[in-house]
UniProtKB/TrEMBL annotation:
GO terms for molecular function: beta-glucosidase activity; galactosylceramidase activity; glucosylceramidase activity; glycosyltransferase activity. It is an enzyme of class 3 (hydrolase). Residues 95-399 form the Glycosyl-hydrolase family 116 N-terminal domain. Residues 469-834 form the Glycosyl-hydrolase family 116 catalytic region domain. Residues 842-885 are annotated as: Disordered. It is a peripheral membrane protein. It is found in: Endoplasmic reticulum membrane; Golgi apparatus membrane. This is Non-lysosomal glucosylceramidase. The gene is GBA2. Residues 873-885 have a biased composition (Basic and acidic residues). Pathway: Sphingolipid metabolism; Steroid metabolism; cholesterol metabolism; Lipid metabolism. InterPro entries: 6-hairpin_glycosidase_sf (IPR008928), 6hp_glycosidase-like_sf (IPR012341), B_Glucosidase_GBA2-typ (IPR014551), GH116_catalytic (IPR006775), GH116_N (IPR024462), Non-lysos_glucosylceramidase (IPR052566). The lineage of its organism: Eukaryota, Metazoa, Chordata, Craniata, Vertebrata. It catalyses: beta-D-glucosyl-(1->3)-O-chenodeoxycholate + H2O = chenodeoxycholate + D-glucose; beta-D-glucosyl-N-(9Z-octadecenoyl)-sphing-4E-enine + cholesterol = N-(9Z-octadecenoyl)-sphing-4-enine + cholesteryl 3-beta-D-glucoside; a beta-D-galactosyl-(1<->1')-N-acylsphing-4-enine + H2O = an N-acylsphing-4-enine + D-galactose; cholesteryl 3-beta-D-glucoside + H2O = cholesterol + D-glucose. It comes from Oncorhynchus tshawytscha (Chinook salmon).
Length: 885
């Protein structure tokens, strides 16, 4: 296996002309020269990309969607949860987002721009605010010798500033949740390294919730004379939205001293009627640092006055007091400068923080007010920006230590390739930048669906949600539904391994929704039929649209009636047991067991012929919602058998012998039917319809086995599939879907014909789903096919991050040529399943121990996974065998 392989990084860095490597920049990560241009420019999937036969098949949906879209956008004046007519065009600009989990995000581009905003929960606004910049000022002997905006842009506005930093001199390096930009200053013998740190810390449920980030500027002076160096941060009050001009915004300087540490800066009060917030830039006071500010300036025209102010003496001179509120139509900005001396041939550094305090939020319906998680530590009064900044500036070194301890075992593992290390950490951006919200559970809310624990239901306020809050993230920035469950199945590995309490909290919410119903009838666009929004005892598709009232109104998705989807209930059962296996939380298992029984009972109706195996219903009734399955299928049938298998396991754990016997019998009969109806000697057929394409090779055919393995099952007593058949199926997928597709360089196509041509029969069978590919790679690793697994996943990483310029916006899908679908998508978080597979399948003394503890009671940084596989008794295994009282 290659280690430290950077062949394609070489392409991304080919225009870099300097030899400088910056200060403290790690070896592994995603690295790109600021002058790089991606050659390939892909387009979003549109109706015109649909083949004639698929147009004919989807004509009804197309017409119904158009009517629905018109009503939504033109009459209700709302944004559709999926806007098929206004896909986000590809901008190959994004870098690591700023901020912790669930407090809103501001994404910076890899060239330093502030360009993607999610301050209103779940709602994205893509706009580069050009006045938001860092500027450097170098002074020698009391004279300014160099002043430069650290941006390669040359905008038509702000002409009084010195733009156009030469991109060939600088590079960006992301290893999320940190990122570095290295700027050698041409002709100055000075190199600046900006390190961006966000508090995204596994097993930490406090600082990880904070809406803050820190920028540490390291200044290296290679001259044999000293310099005075100032860095200025300019920020507009707002996000480039039309609200910025709505009037009433105002700024004020602040100073806060606490526990012997002082910070000062500027507060930018953004006084909108909906979700007002305060943005705050600050710096820590130290003896040889000079902090100065400009409370307010107008970010239009040349802005030469501000520029001249800094150039004069390396500091800013502001009028005292706060600025008057803006007039309608007017924008305001503020600036903060920090300066320090840098000795000859020496170093110094400057620290800035950026915080945004929006403690109370409403979603699109404006029906309820929610409070964000961080208010537990910083209050709900909307006055927390100074203390958030103080906390960030005095704690970021601790955060970094925790991040380093967590990442170190993986980064130092020389058996792992460099691209994988980048993929693993950088894909994690979506936990934060997935429109994520993390709120407190309101005192009056009842997640039990009305059936109280004393009646055998869930607690109204489950302890996990009470203590750790409520968590939701979008299916994708373009597919605006929270916690889309069929997709979360893949992505959930990141949460359960890194923030297991959030994973369990989400499960309690889903469980609550299972026992609830909303019998309002509505039109489902694919079938054209009316049916209820949500019926009882089935898992919802999603927990709602942030532009409506999530948790309150679930199932924003109305393409299909998902009450009849075959995968959702099974994915709940599989996650429950995997989560229990990884956390050993017996209360969780006890609470979820009746819900698992209920959803399995609902699922039984899909076994219409009583052979122990469920059947698909002849439409796209599962996560591949554009790919029809008829009769027993490899995907849903496999998930079913795996679920029945874990029901056996859980029945044993809860000491329910009758349930064990029942599920054991189903497993025996179902396995035989699965084998008979789907096994073709080499792999499991896509479905058993007997139609022309039913023997397509599906890359995801072993998803059930994947979850069994991730749960320490799949062998011995709790086995659902013969090992040799799984291995043969994976080999077929590798040979056909991976190696016979796009020269083996783009991951695995969803569906492949046995003769080696992609299955073009549906709009999704010839797509590559990046999250599915990472999951497939995980199964391969579990089954001992490490080389193949890495090779498979590498194709996706290199395609997305190095070829297509989709860093920090990994899409759901791409085709071999030309198009992609749904940018910034949840599913690719499944890369963490690869890490789980590596952790559990490597010899124990060499395994990088990186994931979760069984109890996870206290915030931790580095952790150890303690799992054992079935038939390989260990301490954990003996725990699993024990009954739960
Ligand atoms: C008459 C016209 C000229 C032709 C119109 C054809 C189109 C109406 C359809 C062709 C392709 C369809 C889309 C394919 C994929 C979709 C994704 C889906 O949402 C989520 O997708 C995930 C899979 O990627 C799934 O796992 C999640 O659970 C879903 O939430 C929503 C539908 C659609 C956009 C689909 C809609 C119709 C077409 C554009």
């Amino acid at each position: 296996m290659e280690s430290g392989d950077n062949s394609s990084t070489a392409e991304l860095m080919s225009r870099y002309v300097s030899l400088e490597l910056g200060y403290g920049v790690p070896k592994d990560g995603w690295r790109i020269c600021l002058a790089h241009e991606f050659k390939e420019k892909r387009k979003p999937f549109q109706a015109k990309d649909v083949s004639l036969s698929n147009i004919v098949e989807h004509i009804g949906l197309g017409v119904r969607y158009l009517k629905w879209w018109y009503k939504k956008t033109q009459i209700e004046k709302k944004a559709p949860f999926i806007d098929m007519f206004r896909a986000i065009p590809l901008r190959q600009i994004y870098g690591a987002p700023l901020g912790g989990i669930g407090g809103g995000t501001i994404t910076r581009g890899w060239r330093g721009e502030f360009c993607r905003w999610q301050l209103n929960p779940g709602m994205y606004h893509y706009k580069t605010v050009i006045a938001n910049q860092f500027t450097v000022c170098l002074r020698r002997g009391g004279q300014t010798v160099y002043q430069q905006v650290l941006s390669v842009e040359r905008p038509p506005t702000l002409q009084g500033w010195n733009w156009g930093y030469c991109g060939e001199y600088a590079f960006y390096h992301a290893l999320y949740p940190r990122a570095w930009t290295v700027y050698p200053l041409p002709g100055q013998n000075v190199t600046l390294t900006c390190r961006q740190v966000s508090p995204v810390i596994p097993h930490d449920y406090q600082d990880s919730s904070l809406p803050v980030a820190v920028f540490v500027w390291d200044i290296e002076n290679k001259n044999d004379y000293p310099l005075d160096v100032s860095i200025m941060l300019t920020m507009v009050n707002g996000s480039g939205h039309k609200d910025d001009k709505s009037g009433g915004h105002w700024n004020e300087p602040f100073h806060l001293e606490k526990a012997g540490e002082s910070v000062s800066g500027v507060l930018l009060h953004h006084c909108t009627t909906v979700n007002p917030y305060t943005l705050c830039m600050a710096a820590r006071e130290q003896s040889d640092r000079e902090i100065s500010h400009q409370t307010a300036f107008s970010p239009k025209g040349t802005c030469g006055v501000l520029w001249g102010d800094l150039i004069a003496d390396g500091r800013l001179d502001s009028p005292t007091g706060s600025s008057p509120p803006t007039q309608k139509g007017e924008k305001v900005a503020a600036a903060l400068a920090v300066g320090c001396p840098v000795p000859a041939q020496g170093h110094n550094d400057l620290e800035f923080s950026l915080a945004w305090d929006m403690p109370n939020i409403t979603f699109g319906s404006r029906e309820r007010e929610h409070v964000r998680r961080y208010t537990r530590f910083f209050g709900t009064k909307a006055d927390a920006a100074p203390s958030l900044s103080h906390h960030a500036l005095t704690h970021y070194r601790l955060w970094e230590r925790s991040i380093e301890e967590w990442q170190r075992p993986i980064l130092q593992d020389s058996s792992l390739p460099s691209w994988y290390k980048s993929a693993l950490f950088n894909e994690l951006y979506f936990v934060v930048d997935g429109g994520t919200v993390w709120t407190e559970l309101p005192e009056d809310s009842d997640v039990s669906g009305g059936l109280r624990s004393e009646d055998g239901g869930l607690p109204a306020q489950p302890a996990i949600i009470k203590e750790y809050g409520r968590f939701a993230y979008l299916e994708g920035q373009e597919y605006r539904m929270y916690n889309t469950y069929d997709v979360h199945f893949y992505a959930s590995f990141a949460l359960i391994m890194l923030w297991p309490k959030l994973a369990l909290s989400l499960q309690y919410d889903i469980a609550g929704s299972v026992v609830s119903c909303d019998l309002t009838e509505r039109l489902h666009l694919m079938s054209g039929r009316n049916s209820p929004v949500k019926v009882k005892n089935v898992v919802p598709h999603d927990i709602g649209d942030p532009d409506d009232e999530p948790w309150q109104r679930v199932n924003a998705y109305l393409i299909h009636d998902t009450a009849d989807w075959k995968d959702l209930n099974l994915k709940f059962v599989l996650q429950v047991y995997r989560d229990f296996h990884l956390t050993q939380d017996t209360q969780y298992l006890q609470d979820m067991w009746p819900i698992c029984q209920a959803v399995m009972e609902s699922e039984m109706k899909f076994d219409t012929d009583g052979d122990g195996l469920i059947e698909n219903s002849g439409y796209a009734d599962q996560t591949y919602d554009g790919w029809t399955a008829t009769g027993p299928s490899a995907y849903c049938g496999g998930l079913w058998l795996a679920s029945v298998c874990v029901m056996c396991k859980m029945a044993r754990l809860v000491n329910n012998e009758a349930a064990f016997q029942r599920f054991r019998d189903i497993l025996d009969r179902g396995s035989a039917a699965f084998d008979k109806l789907l096994w073709n000697g080499q792999y499991y057929n896509y479905d058993s319809s007997g139609q022309d394409l039913s023997n397509s090779v599906m890359s995801d055919q072993c998803a059930g086995q994947w979850f069994l393995r991730a749960s320490g099952l799949g062998d011995g007593q709790f086995q659902a599939f013969p090992k040799e058949k799984i291995c043969s199926a994976l080999k077929s997928v590798f040979d056909l879907n991976v190696m016979s597709f796009a020269g083996g360089q783009m991951g695995a196509v969803n569906g492949m014909r046995p003769e080696g041509v992609p299955d073009h029969s549906s709009v999704q069978s010839d797509e590559v789903w990046i999250g599915v590919v990472y999951g497939l790679a995980a199964i391969m690793i579990h089954e001992g096919m490490l080389e193949e697994g890495l090779r498979t996943a590498e194709g996706c990483y290199r395609t997305v991050w190095e070829r297509l310029g989709m860093a920090f916006q990994t899409p759901e899908a791409y085709c071999e040529k030309g198009i992609y679908r749904s940018l910034a998508y949840m599913r690719p978080l499944s890369i963490w399943a690869m890490q789980l597979a590596l952790d559990t399948s490597q010899p124990r003394d060499q395994a990088p121990k990186t994931t979760t503890t069984p109890t996870d009671q206290a915030p931790q940084t580095t952790t150890t996974i303690q799992t054992a596989t079935e038939g390989e008794p260990g301490q954990k295994e003996s725990q699993d065998q024990g009954h739960i009282p």
